[in-house]
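In the previous chapter we treated chains in isolation. Here, by contrast, the input contains three separate entities that must be folded as one system, with a combined length of 624 residues.
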Amino acid sequence: MMEELAEVPWAVIAPLIVVQFILMIIALVDLRKIHATNGPKILWVFLIIFTSYIGSIAYFIVGRKQS
Amino acid sequence: MRGFTVLLQKEFREAWRSWKFLWIPLVFALLGMSDPLTNYYMMDILNAIGNLPEGFEMLMPELMPVDLLQASIGQFQTIGLLVIIASFVGAISKERASGMATLLYVRPISFGAYFMSKFIVMSTVSLISILAGFAASVYYTVVLYGTFEIGTLMASFFTYFSWLLFVIAVTLMMSAAFTTVVATACAFAVIFIGQIVDAIVGAFWTISPWKLPVYGVQLMRGTMEMSDYWWSLSITLAITIICMSIGALTMKKNASMTKI
Amino acid sequence: MTILLQVTGLTKQFAERVVVDGVEFTLEKNTSTALIGPNGAGKTTTLSMLTGLLKPTSGSVKMLDGNLRANIGFLPQYPQFHPWLSALEFTEMAAKLNGVPAKKAIVEAQKTLEFVGLGNDLNKKIATFSGGMKQRLGISQAIVHKPKLLLLDEPVSALDPVGRREVLDLLKGLQLETTILYSTHILNDAEEMTDQLLFLRDGKLVEQGTLREVRQRFDEPNYVVEFSTEKEAKLFASQSELVGEAKGRNVYIEIINEKPSMQELLQYLSSNPYKIRKVERQTASLEEIFMKVARKI
């Protein structure tokens, strides 16, 4: 297992993971601050955390309630 | 253009506070990264999934850097455009439907200025987004495959940006003309169905806005027929300006649609 | 008095339905006018046309003293704000869009917000505002540029009694400086703050004038005589030559064509051995007048 982990080219993969992580954090921070969402907030928490970046995109497009 | 700077500031604040300046570029960066990475590690991925027959050797085509950029642009053209259209198509129609527009429309503002301020903010978000997307794609391609020629890369970038201005103008015009649902349908139809139609029967013509993203790539390959390119670019910019004018006019005409 | 706004033959038709039908009135400078009428009478549609947001089918709205669009402040019944802006940012933007120079706009915005009681919430995002705060912000965005004409659609209907009192007092404070036209279906409010009444029913202006004029036209006042005991009241009602109806200790005497006059009544009462607690002339409330107007065909 450790060997396999060492084989992963982290230097190459790291930016990808970092960008995904930032996107997720922004979505979560916004979710924390926003007044109301379309659909239950907890659902969005799960979607954002467990569906890589698709959940975050979906949240920003349809999850945020503006008025 | 009465109230232009004030409205521009309002639009910037909105885009900034709803994180559009951050999350959309991040999505484009991810899209830009995905193709160079997955292609490069295709064999590893296949191996990791396992069950490849003994002695299996897949013939991987020899990929040039420009092929990977083209693949990335393909990503922008699907998920990227979806994100941009979906986040901007309500810009005018939603403001009307919610009644937020009422307190602005009732003042002596110029609708041209209001339309322009929205257009400029969206263009800026899009510019930063494709900058992030191109940068991510180019970075991985350079690290994993090989280098680009900077001049044609820039040309390709700005060609793609011109196409995006067209997309934004169409989207905003639809938003000015219709309710959000209808506007979404119409904008998707023009942009996506337009692409499909252009791909299927587009062999019969060489000048079209929908061909512009591909032409940008062909500039890099050096296979572009330049007169077709310039004509397409000019027509795209002309249609963009026409859409903006129609948009501003219909925005004014539909001002009474705002919920009071 | 100088006339500020002249409305002639204002009509709005949606498909086959005439929502506002030939409404005509004038507004004098620095007066308050209440636009009243039952739900669906066309109050909001009328106001929308005055703001210029809605184009009339026919008729005209003329401001005799400058451009209409640049000189109005408007508060819709349910004002919607951009929730990601702060109260100060929104009010400042409103001022600037009406042509107030940038430096002055921020000062005016601050002053106005303090005036409406949002002095402590200047930098809070509107998303966090309660209904009452939004209504105050709504007033501030309507008055920040010092418009000549203030159009308010049901400015206090959605507020609780305390909020209603406070906002009403705010508006009364404004009465001296600007011309106000507001719609309402709460007649106590109209009674408190009005120089002119406009009754709208089914899109038509059925009654207009000052509160006093309308009163005179529709008033059917009573005298109420309160006796010390119910027995006396009954006795008086049955014996007197004045037509009276006893209810408890009170006797209500209808006045027909100013008969009887107060004098006659007092004479009659003093010539009889009754113990009287109170004699009062009772005028109809605006609400009663409203009911009459609303039913009148």
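The first helix of chain C runs from residue 43 to 51. Chain C touches chain A at residues 80, 83, 127-128 (CB under 8 Å). Compare these points with the single-chain example from earlier in the chapter.
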